[in-house]
Structures are given as C-alpha cells and as structure tokens.
Design a protein that fits this description.
CATH superfamily of the largest domain: Periplasmic binding protein-like II
Strand order of the largest sheet: 2-1-3-10-4-11
Largest sheet: 6 strands, mixed
Mean pLDDT: 88
Number of helices: 10
Order of helices and strands: HEHEHEHEEEHHEHEHEEHHE
CATH architecture of the largest domain: 3-Layer(aba) Sandwich
Radius of gyration: 22 Å
Strand content: 15-25%
Structural class: alpha/beta
CATH topology of the largest domain: D-Maltodextrin-Binding Protein, domain 2
Distance between the termini: 65 Å
Shape: elongated
Length: 262
C-alpha cells in the first residue's frame, strides 16, 4: 500500500518536477541585458545575431536611462549584463563591487548634437542661438540619471549658457524622450546623441555638433554583473558586442567603435 502511494505521488509530482527542470534549463540559456536606451536599435540587431550564433538562446533587453538601470542593479535586479552610456554609472557599480572583474570593456563612443523639429522655422544654427527670444523650450536628459543630460549640461556650461537658459530647460527621463519631444514639436530644440538623431532623421534636423572639448568623452562601457546565473553566456554576449559583427552593427547606427579593456 505504501509502495503504491509512493508511486502515485511520484507520478503526480512529475509534471511539476518536469516544469521546474525545464524552467531551470531555459534560464541556463537566457540572459538579461540592461542597456542605455540609446543602444536600443544596435543591441536588438546584435541580439538577433547572437541568438542565431548560439542557437536556442534567449536575450532579454531592459532599455532605459543608465542611472536608473544602475540603481535597479544596486537594488538587486537579476541582471546579467549592463551596458551604460557613461563610465560614471558603471563606476558606481564597480565601487560597490557589483561587476565581475576583468569583464568591463569600453566598446563604443558617441557625439552630442543640437537638434530642432524638422519643420521648424527657427533661426537656430549654433548653440549660442539657444539664447534667442524665439527659443522658448530646450529639452535635455535629466543630468541626475541620464548621461546624455550630463553631457548636454557640460556643453551648455562650455558655451556659458547655463545661467541664461534656466527657465527654458525641459528635463526628460532618457535620451530618446528628448528626441520624442523635438520630433513632436513640443520643444524648440534639444541636445541628444548623434546616433539618436539618425534614428529620427526624417522628423528632426541636426543643426550643430558639440565640439569634443565641450564635454567629457561619450564612452559606453559594458560588463558582467556579479551574481549572474549565466556568466559564460554573459561573457559571450560581450564578446559578440566587441566582435567584428558587433562593430559593424555599431557603425551602422552611427557609433564610434573602441576596444579598450580595463
């Protein structure tokens, strides 16, 4: 009787055991990549290539402002790979010992440009023109969480415009939101990455590029997060990002490519 009961219990639990084992096996072939929103198009393309190369692998993406993503990781989000639009946000994780040593690599660079709505009749041709009375609203990312916003703030400081533009600045939650504001004509101008400007080239106009000396270098680092359940797969994803195919995708969307390990 006891033997029959044990057999019955085993078979009744089998679907649950199978499902649990299947879920575990699936998680072993899955990684979550938290990445700066400016990398959306590029990483989706790289992700497709990576999945095709690995076979059966799932790459899940969480795109957002680098500062917000870093805070999520600090709060315990189950992230395998983090790609930031700024060294600062990666440094914050590094100081808290949250990235695996030897996995951090700078893989891309970008530029800051001044944009206006495509149909705008604004006389904007330079950063100095932002002080003109016709310019009422200028969008930048929130410097507290958005690297593009910090770079934009540096550019405004470089041109000695910060004090005269305080009432004009509209803060956005991430780099792509600035792009949305400008494309919809909700602001007169915005400061974004040149790669973002390319994404909506039919809806906005790039009127000026910020000089390199006007802001800190726009560098994108990537690293494996400590506690990942998929360290080998996470490292392979980073290798793909820095590979020839990865560089091709980055250049396709207007990024500069680099390969400096630290």
């Amino acid at each position: 009787m006891v033997k029959k009961a044990c057999v019955f219990l085993l078979f009744s639990l089998w679907p649950l055991l199978f499902a649990t084992g299947e879920a575990f096996a699936q998680s072993e072939r899955e990684i979550l990549v938290s990445a700066a929103v400016s990398l959306t198009n590029t990483f989706q393309e790289i992700g497709d290539f990576f999945k095709g190369k690995q076979g059966g692998v799932r790459v899940l993406f969480n795109f957002g402002a680098s500062g917000d993503l870093a805070r999520q990781i600090i709060g315990g989000a189950p992230v395998d790979v983090f790609a930031s639009a700024s060294p600062k946000d990666m440094d914050d994780l590094d100081q808290k010992d949250l990235i695996i040593k030897g996995t951090r690599v700078n893989f891309a660079g970008n530029r800051i440009v001044l944009i206006t709505p495509f149909r705008s009749v604004s006389p904007l041709t330079s950063f100095h023109d932002l002080t003109r009375t016709e310019v009422k609203r200028v969008a930048i990312g929130n410097p507290k969480t958005v690297p593009a916003g910090r770079y934009a703030e540096e550019v405004l400081n470089y041109f000695h415009l910060t004090g005269t533009m305080t009432s004009k600045i509209i803060f956005a939650g991430n780099a792509r939101q600035v792009l949305d504001y400008v494309a919809r004509g909700e602001v007169d101008a915005g400061l974004v990455y040149s790669t973002d400007a390319l994404v909506r080239a039919k809806e906005i106009k790039s009127v000026a590029e910020a000089p390199e000396q006007s802001h800190s270098p726009v560098v994108y680092p990537i690293a494996v997060i400590k506690g990942t359940r998929n360290e080998p797969l996470a490292k392979q994803f980073i290798s793909t990002v820095t590979s020839r195919e990865g560089n091709t995708a980055l250049e396709k969307y207007g990024f500069r490519t680099v390969g400096q390990r630290r």
